[in-house]
Amino acid sequence: PIPTNLEQLSYLSKYACQRASPLICPNQELAVELDILKRSRGLEGEERSALSYARAISVVKAYPHRITSKSQVQKLPHFGVKICSLVEEFLDTGEISEARSIASSERFKTLSDFSSVYGIGPNAAQKLYNLGLRTLEDLEIYYGVDPTDIETNLIKLENEEAPRGSTRRSQGQKDEPGESWIKVALGLRNDLMKKIPRTEAEEMSRIVMQELDAIEPGCVSTIVGGFRRGKPEGNDVDIVFTHPDGGMVKGLCRQLVQRLHERGMVTHVMHLSSFHGPNPLRTAHWDSLEKALTVFTLPKSSPLYTGTRRRLDLIFAHPDVYWTAVIGWSGSVMFQRDLRQWAKDKYGMKFDSSGITRRHDSKPFYPKTEKEVFELFGLEWVGPTWRNA
Ligand code: TTP
Ligand code: MN
Ligand code: MN
Ligand code: MN
């Protein structure tokens, strides 16, 4: 059931941060069907179209009743002519024919598989497809990966990012890791494709905290990402850390990664960024926290040890911006996007994972709890399990 403070919430709001979005919604089949179109547009590089679908899907996710009539559909926000007609087709036939034909197409399956490899984005996936490659085994041969020899792909530390490969996307888009990471990721794919159960995520967090405690006692952390939104399993584990004494945070991320590496738990580091502190001049939202994107294996001493390698993201925040970071990294992506938009439109504020500032004078705000973040923006509290927008 929807929490009482959210019952009155307008599920017709155009902002996802005002809507209650459960993990599984009353119109889940429709959301799944539209998601195929969204993913296909993304894989074809049609970002604007993909975003339109993403918005419509997130509206469907918050709709608290079973949609049965066309009149219900027409008043939904972010529902343009095209989406309305697709939903009407779904109401009439129980499916969307375009989604069915995409889902069964070789191109969609191949592009999905290729872009599931860390380091391969839509552009690279299309290029590989155009070369005639169709399966991940084809990619292994193309990149010359020996699947039995992943240990030769050594850990990267000291801000050494992988060399930029030919697969880099055009300017203005997010950087992609280079070819050497694609080889690493291909070598690890059998492990990284496996879903991580919640119990294992919790065990990973416990062990990481134990190691962190040996470096700097008194740190606190929250498991964020999909697990915080209630997903029973995830593709990776995301953890945000801080220390009540802000002076202790700087450099901790690197020290922790180093220690986990020495103890055989972290085998690969895809990205290790340094602390910049909230800086209104920086436009890159995700880069002003200390973070490490890694590959992690539980130690043999753990009762949950299987040897399976897992993606683990570690994010370190100054205590002033801890709750902002927790909200930012809890997602969903659409919930964050609209929270940022809301803060800008209604309050003239800039919100991102690394801090909240007022736009006209760059005054920073430091909410002391997660609830205070919502209060600051005049929003009803939306618990993390209702942020699956
Ligand atoms: P992800 O781990 O990419 O996604 P997820 O945890 O929602 O789902 P999955 O089970 O597939 O891992 O990202 C976690 C959240 O963090 C995401 O909802 C948005 C946010 N995020 C950032 O703030 N910065 C980043 O650089 C990335 C990649 C994500
Ligand atoms: Mn995650
Ligand atoms: Mn992650
Ligand atoms: Mn970066």
Structural class: alpha+beta
The coarse silhouette is: globular
| The CATH C-level class name of the largest domain | Alpha Beta
Helix proportion of residues, in percent? 40-55%
- Number of discrete helical segments: 16
Distance between the termini: 17 Å
The largest sheet has its strands arranged as 2-4-7-6-5
Plain-language structure description:
Its EC number is 2.7.7.7. This is DNA-directed DNA polymerase. Belongs to the DNA polymerase type-X family. It is found in: Nucleus. Its main location: nucleus. By secondary structure, the protein is α+β, with helices and mostly antiparallel strands. The protein has 4 domains: 4-103, Orthogonal Bundle (DNA polymerase, domain 1); 110-192, no CATH class; 196-278 and 287-319, Beta Polymerase, domain 2 (2-Layer Sandwich), CATH 3.30.460; 326-386, DNA polymerase, thumb domain (Beta Polymerase, domain 3), CATH 3.30.210.10. 43% of the residues lie in helices and 12% in strands. The protein has helices at 4-7, 28-43, 47-62, 70-74, 81-93, 97-103, 106-115, 122-130, 136-143, 179-192, 198-215, 225-228, 252-262, 322-330, 333-347, 370-376, and strands at residues 196-197, 220-223, 233-234, 236-242, 266-273, 290-296, 310-316, 349-352, 355-358, 364-365. A 5-stranded mixed sheet has the order 2-4-7-6-5, sandwiched between helices. The model is unreliable at 157-175 and 280-287 (pLDDT under 50). Bound molecules: thymidine-5'-triphosphate (TTP) and manganese (II) ion (3 copies). One manganese (II) ion binds next to strand 4.
